[in-house]
Amino acid sequence: MASGGDASVNLEDVPSLNLMTELLRRMKCASKPDKRLILIGPPGSGKGTQSPIIKDEYCLCHLATGDMLRAAVATKTPLGVKAKEAMEKGELVSDDLVVGIIDDAIKKPSCQKGFILDGFPRTVVQAEKLDDMLAKQGTKIDKVLNFSIDDAILEERITGRWIHPSSGRTYHSKFAPPKVPGVDDVTGEPLIQRKDDTAAVLKSRLEAFHRQTEPVVDYYSKKGAVTNLHADKPTEEVTKEVKMVLS
Predict the structure, then answer these.
(1) Left, alpha or beta for 44 (phi > 0: left; psi -120 to 50: alpha)?
(2) What digits encode the pLDDT tens for the residues 33-71?
(3) Which residue, 129, 132, 238, 243, is the most exposed by fewest CB within 10 angstroms?
(4) Domain Adenylate kinase active site lid spans what residues (predicted)?
(5) Model's pTM, two decimal places?
(6) In sequence order, what are the beta bridge partners of 148?
């Protein structure tokens, strides 16, 4: 999508089918209400599964702050240049910079109907800065979807995951086991576990999540914006719950 005055995409060169598809999508989306959402949940809680479904259903743009930072650095936007300087010094990118990058992103046509923020805000200070920026535009966060799930269930979900590295096929020792333990069904090659799918890594990630991010849920709860989802249920049921909350 050409941004601002960037003429690198000439519409004459875009195939008609793509143009028509995009036009139909925009017409369908025109009647959708605006939504500005934050998804919060620990690793393995299913945010990554639900966000594309929500994005398509409500014509929102998906803002994953890590990807946006990398894109801003790669395209050398003014904020991207600053972020790169911080990274090269081994510093964390400041909250103000990240909020600035979000501010830039939500002005794009694809974010016209609103956005899904994923992985941000992680702290109350970030939430306050985000709210200030949105208030200047006369908008606010409509809903915070909190993917609540017991740590013990996450441990079972995540530590049971096994992967066939060359094909990306995934198995689960309890929910989708291979025919022969530890071996890929198709090739008979050994399965591996990702380094961050171990109980020890999960424990430290969950501790960080509870310490930093649960106060963010409290912060938005006081504003009446939080809905707790039963993230331990099957995917389809969580999707139904999300649609009920957002309808």
Answers:
(1) left
(2) 999 999 999 988 999 889 999 999 999 999 988 888 888
(3) 132
(4) 161-196
(5) 0.81
(6) 230
